Q: What sequence folds into this?
């Protein structure tokens, strides 16, 4: 980039310096409790809050604790299921919104917006009686399975996110390739598989991974709908708050943080390597998250 | 660094001829599954909650009954205890949202305007990482830090800044800190997106036309970023009003919020009818407040625009 000759010269004013200090302090604030958790995950004491010694014992304890490893596997299975469900729902909805807008478009957008802004606690207390009604009163026993409940409950918000990501990607693209395929007598199915899907692949992949991480984090809705025996990881932490927190929780949380970072890194990479996509890397992600 | 520019939006293509209208049918129904999914697992469940809110709790073993319908649960929900906690929730939410805006705006401005382009992605990623870290775990990080015998308290005491152990945890002050922390990224992101799209030429034009840094900021930057501000206020305020985790971890009895009351009716008290009425009241309060604030912002925006255009170009019709 060349600086335009006309215009002010770049110089550091006191306001710029203050802004930089403010920004760096803000970032430090955002990272403070995360750093605390990572440090305390090496606490060899009995309770999390009282730091006694430095060691990797909490990590060994966490991995040897069946209740913890069980909850992690419930969380990972749920997250995978949520990723599949929300990617399928969100991809079709995103394509339809971008390509085949109609009388239903404003209504669907309002619904998706409502899903995204309704406080989690309200969704949670609505779903609990609903699952009881479906599973117990109406005898649809599938809805009594913890994993099924978790996947359904966590997929709503994620499907809305995927829809907006795919819609953003489709709106920025020319329809001519799909029309050319249609002119060349490709069936709707082949057109979708060979043309549309490859074109929106980055949006679909990043949407799926975002749905995965969103579901890994969910505490409120999960704690209401989960049934005994299928407790996901955040619900396990939430339940142990009432007793006492042990360093294993910080250790496993640190491992999960590393997993989340890897997934986010992949999302950023997919979005960055995609020339026609929604901006580059983190900026594209941020833009998508706030609905552009 | 080479960034490939996204192709500009295409000129809309003429609608396909009638012979190809069959093309339209299959993909239009793509929105149907998600619509059904939302209807089945979002609209109907909430409808059921509204229905329950008109019922009652017949005995201690039953969570709800609807054979007699009344508004009694709303009367019961609107008790002085509810209003006390509701008032605290509203107070924490409004102050928290304003604090988020005050902290986030300079940060977003620094990121989007002052920071060199190659650093922007990095700093943005640094804002996103805490946002994607488990909400509950981050809050527990604050619980550890704020506890009376925690390391912050010890450091402050040995530095003789405070004489007695830190008395913040399990007060509404701790909840206030926790919610500002937890929702800050949700304010930074929309502000960043709005500020990054701000055309720097407009700022230069304002300077060239004799505007000071101050008037440029208030008359150009702020009005042009107001959609981002509105989005940020909404994204922070709405979930904050219903927050249930932060007050549970940091609040104790002195810092409880409405979300906990609603949850308590469903989990411990097993009074679904009353809990449902409380949830409906909470939804009304959230959307009512958002609508009022949104309306006010629109009004302020209009007045500002009118005043600006009056002072800048008196001949221009409003």
A:
């Amino acid at each position: 980039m060349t600086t335009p000759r006309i215009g002010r010269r770049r110089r550091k004013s006191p306001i710029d310096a203050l802004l930089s200090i403010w920004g760096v302090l803000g970032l430090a604030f955002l990272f403070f409790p995360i750093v605390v958790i990572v440090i305390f995950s090496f606490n060899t004491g009995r309770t999390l809050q009282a730091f006694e010694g430095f060691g990797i014992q909490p990590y060994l304890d966490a991995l040897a604790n069946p209740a913890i490893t069980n909850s992690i596997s419930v969380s990972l299975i749920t997250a995978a299921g949520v990723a599949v469900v929300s990617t399928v729902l969100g991809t079709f909805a995103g394509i339809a919104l971008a390509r085949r807008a109609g009388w239903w478009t404003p209504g669907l957008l309002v619904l998706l917006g409502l899903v995204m802004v309704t406080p989690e606690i309200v969704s949670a207390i609505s779903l609990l009686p609903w699952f009881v009604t479906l599973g117990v009163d109406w005898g649809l026993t599938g809805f009594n399975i913890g994993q099924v409940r978790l996947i359904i409950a966590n997929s709503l918000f994620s499907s809305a996110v995927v829809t907006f990501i795919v819609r953003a990607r489709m709106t920025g693209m020319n329809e001519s390739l799909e029309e050319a395929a249609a002119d060349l007598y490709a069936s709707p199915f082949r057109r979708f598989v060979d043309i549309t899907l490859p074109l929106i692949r980055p949006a679909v992949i990043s949407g799926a991974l975002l749905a995965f991480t969103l579901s890994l984090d969910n505490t409120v809705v999960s704690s209401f709908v989960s049934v005994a025996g299928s407790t996901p990881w955040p619900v396990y932490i939430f339940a142990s708050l009432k007793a006492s927190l042990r360093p294993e929780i910080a250790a496993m949380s640190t491992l999960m943080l590393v997993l989340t970072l890897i997934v986010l890194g992949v999302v950023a990479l997919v979005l960055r390597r995609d020339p026609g996509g929604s901006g580059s890397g983190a900026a594209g992600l941020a833009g998508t998250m706030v609905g552009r | 660094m080479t960034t490939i520019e996204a192709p500009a939006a295409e000129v809309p293509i003429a609608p396909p001829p009638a012979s190809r209208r069959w093309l339209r049918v299959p993909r239009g129904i793509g929105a149907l599954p998600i619509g059904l999914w939302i209807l089945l697992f979002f609209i109907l469940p909430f409808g059921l909650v509204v229905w329950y809110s008109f019922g009652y709790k017949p005995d201690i073993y039953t969570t709800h009954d609807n054979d007699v319908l009344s508004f009694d649960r709303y009367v019961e929900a609107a008790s002085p205890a509810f209003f006390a906690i509701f008032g605290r929730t509203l107070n924490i939410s409004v102050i928290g949202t304003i604090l988020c805006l005050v902290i986030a705006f300079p940060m977003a401005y620094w990121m989007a305007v002052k920071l060199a382009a190659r650093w922007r992605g990095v700093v943005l990623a640094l804002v996103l990482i805490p946002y994607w870290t488990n909400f509950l775990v981050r809050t527990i990080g604050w619980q550890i830090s704020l506890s009376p015998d925690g390391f912050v308290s010890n450091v402050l005491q040995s530095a003789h800044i405070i004489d007695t152990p830190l008395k913040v945890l399990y007060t509404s002050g701790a909840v206030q800190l926790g919610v500002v922390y937890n929702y800050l990224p949700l304010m930074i992101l929309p502000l960043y997106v709005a500020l990054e799209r701000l055309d720097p030429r407009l700022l230069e034009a304002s300077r060239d036309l004799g505007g000071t840094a101050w008037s440029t900021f208030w008359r150009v930057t702020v009005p042009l970023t107001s959609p981002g501000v509105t989005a940020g206020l909404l994204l922070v305020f709405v979930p904050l009003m219903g927050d249930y985790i932060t007050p549970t971890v940091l609040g104790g009895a002195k810092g409880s919020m409405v979300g906990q009351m609603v949850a308590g009716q469903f989990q411990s008290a097993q009074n679904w009818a009353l809990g449902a009425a409380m949830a409906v009241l909470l939804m009304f309060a959230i959307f009512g407040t958002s609508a009022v604030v949104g309306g006010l912002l629109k009004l302020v925006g209009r007045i500002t625009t009118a005043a600006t255009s009056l002072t800048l170009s008196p001949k221009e019709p409003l």
